[in-house]
Amino acid sequence: MTQHDYDLFVIGAGSGGVRAARIAGGYGARVALAEESRVGGTCVMRGCVPKKFLVYAAHFAEDFADARGYGWTVGKSKHDWKTLIRNKNAELNRLEKSYLSLLKGAKVDLIRGRAKVVGPEAVEINGKRISAKTILVSTGSWPVIPEIPGREYAITSNEALDLPRLPKRIAVVGGGYVAVEFAGIFHGLGADVTLVYRGNVVLRGFDGDVRAHVSEELKKKGIKIGYGREPIAIEKKGKGYRLRFAQGRPVDCDLVMYATGRAPNTRGLGLDRLGVAMEKNGAVKVDQWSRSSVPSIYAVGDVTNRINLTPVALMEGHAFADTIFGNRPRPVDHDNVASAVFSQPPVGVVGLSEERAREKGFAVDIYRTTFQPMRHSLSGNKERILMKLVVDCLSDKVLGAHMVGPDAPEIIQGIGIAVKAGLTKSAFDRTIGIHPTAAEEFVTLRSKVPEPVAKAAE
Questions:
Q1: What CATH code would you report for 339-456?
Q2: What pLDDT is attached to residue 454?
Q3: Stretch (H or E) spanning 257
């Protein structure tokens, strides 16, 4: 029997990799974890956590304005970007130390450096070859900037979190959740923001009503949106930049941020040389157990391009460790995963959109409402909430729930349990709401959207 240096070698200390390493170590496995950057990965160091801090900061501008309607006298406010970034970085340092402590407690060997897979049961790092019975790839994804002239002038979400100062004029390229979130952040902190997108409405893949509602709310807040705009070049112009398009007038700005997608971070890992099956975009193909085409190599998280969300990576990493080292085989159920967009206002969704439900052949009833949040009754804020349920006509099962408005992600987390459990609309109807809250609207929706109107949303 061949003796390996480790039972498990994990490449990438992001959410999925750290969770897998910790759980496997808890089962008594000898585990090594390689990381060339900071422990915590995209979410903790370059994604959802620092971004959420910036979202909180940006929303205070509206909070100050709303306070006047409640009798508060609010003096002239001024935001200091450097203080925000300094405090954000201090918290990230604390979180990284916490991760390091957890790994140490699980007796995981952390190896700093870039690992490369050189055999079905071998990796190379820092010039040293290490053998492992099982290898787990959890290297995540990385922002992509298209090959256009002047692309070197653009930044991505990585750099946006550590800008030395906040520019006055910012052009954000893209219409996905990252683009929409950063447009809101920059605008809330005082920048003049132009969002340019090649499509005709933001948040492709989300429910049509959600997309339209978010687009309208962004415009109401003063964010300029240019649809049908595909950049062809970025030019240096004085101290700023000019973003040119195939059609339409260019946009002059002080900063160009690209948020047009991410690619699985597999380049240079050596997987292709071993015959590991890959998607065209570099994602590792895996089965329901996160196993690749090479039996000893597994992959979890964004690098597999299944559902690119941190909680999904955590669940995949945990399930992998339970299956391989805990004698508790369990695949991950990727159906009805709730998600959020921390735009302003935020979005929370779970289950099928109306369009996707119809594509899958369901005959659906649509329940939808829009209304002014109670707190804005006195503030004068024109922001409105959208809530929507997609229901299977035949079974009465709630197929999808969608919300745009304050606290939408917090509310949808609870609704997500109901949708995951397969509850019916009648179960929602029997539930007594908490009054006065926005959340109660999900259990008081009684009027269906007339069918011709519902079909028009397709």
A1: 3.30.390.30
A2: 54
A3: strand 255-258
